[in-house]
Amino acid sequence: xxxxxxxxxxxxxxxxxxxxxxxxxxxxxxxxxxxxxxxxxxxxxxxxxxxxxxxxxxxxxxxxxxxxxxxxxxxxxxxxxxxxxxxxxxxxxxxxxxxxxxxxxxxxxxxxxxxxxxxxxxxxxxxxxxxxxxxxxxxxxxxxxxxxxxxxxxxxxxxxxxxxxxxxxxxxxxxxxxxxxxxxxxxxxxxxxxxxxxxxxxxxxxxxxxxxxxxxxxxxxxxxxxxxxxxxxxxxxxxxxxxxxxxxxxxxxxxxxxxxxxxxxxxxxxxxxxxxxxxxxxxxxxxxxxxxxxxxxxxxxxxxxxxxxxxxxxxxxxxxxxxxxxxxxxxxxxx
Length: 335
Hints:
The protein is 41% helix and 9% strand. It contains eleven helices and seven strands. The strands form two sheets. The chain has a five-stranded parallel β-sheet with strand order 1-2-3-7-6, sandwiched between helices. The termini are far apart.
């Protein structure tokens, strides 16, 4: 029998099965979206494939009932754990009126849902980091019991918002966890052409916070470091920077051809690091997951994905006149 790593972290068998199911749900929704895009039914996909372990492991280390999150566009695994549904995500992909993120006004991946404390994302990358830091400042000023969690890609860590947000969080010792999902490419620019240091986490010391780099294909490793960072933030010790090393298994988006900058051998090597079969193998080694249970889980997930797809495809688009809503203040109201 293999070593049971999750019990040492305080996780039950049910916990790790839920982490695996979140990863699997994110992957199956993402795969469906690619098919819909190639069939001409939805306009755009920006993928989470290869990063699900980092997302689900980190999200599980937070308190989804009180913490606020500012996810970036690939974070399907994070928002699923925090309460978004496959139907919500499909409504966004089809840009329908019921899309909870923006009523069909934003591109897919611009997550935002107040009831689940998901801060609205914006198209310019990294703007979510100052937002998360600002909400963490509010928690500190009001002495409220929550922390914030923000994610971004390693390419985003080269933007001004990253450095301003990091500096502000470090100076004021704010209760926030900053997680960089390093998938090796800022669209077509490889990480060695982005950083003058070895790791993104090396930058943390300049802002007065700890930085750690971890295997982003292992949800248990990610859970451990994010849980430590979250506990640190809750106890008033300030922010942390977590870098998860991931592999982007698809093109940057459905509008990108990654064959122009990645060769077939590199892609094959990265597919060997796919976190889903890797975590499934661990769960089977420790006797938590069986082939029968995995099959049952897959069938249940696909029923939900199919229902979400059918619902969203047949849902109405927003009325053209609604484009003017939420742009200007309405007289006599707060719409």
